[in-house]
Amino acid sequence: MEYIDYSEPYKDMGEAFIEIILQEKDSQHTLKKIEMWIGDFDSILDEIPLNEDGMYVGLAYHQNIDSPWKELSPVPWEMDDLRISLSQMLYVRSNLNQENLMPLCDDICDILGKAINGKNKVLVRYFY
């Protein structure tokens, strides 16, 4: 399993963190996991624009209308609309002005791409 921790500089803040996990579809085997501070995750998702119909879809929907990952639960939320979410993250990555967030975007895109190509699932977990 590949594990990348972007949260280390924020550990003493007492705030929440997000794990994004690439998991095999038919097992509990984790292929890749990244951990980040919730503030960085929010900053990335806040850059996703409305779609061409002026609606929130994919990750933008979940960030602005229904945030299932912001509920403390031992069971992570399974990300839906992986293709839409990947296109949104690629958009954010190409328009991002905060260089410190680019590696996070790259890893989120990598996880989403591998999930789509390998027919795997992406889980999101919110924790303190």
Structure, explained:
This protein has 128 residues and is α+β, with helices and mostly antiparallel strands. The protein is built from 4 helices and 5 strands. Strands 1-3-2-5-4 form a 5-stranded mixed beta sheet. Helix 3 runs antiparallel to helix 4 (102-118). The mean pLDDT is 92.
Keywords:
128 residues; alpha+beta; 5-stranded mixed beta sheet; 4 helices; 36% helix
In short:
By secondary structure, the chain is of the alpha+beta class. It is built from four helices and five strands.
Which structural class do the helices and strands define?
alpha+beta
The N- to C-terminal Cα distance equals 22 Å
The parts where pLDDT drops under 50 for at least 5 residues are: none
The main β sheet shows up as:
5 strands, mixed
Q: Helical amount among residues, as a percent range? A: 25-40%
The best one-word shape is globular
> Radius of gyration, Cα only, in angstroms?
14 Å
How do the strands of the widest beta sheet line up side by side? 1-3-2-5-4
- As a percent range, the share of strand residues is 15-25%
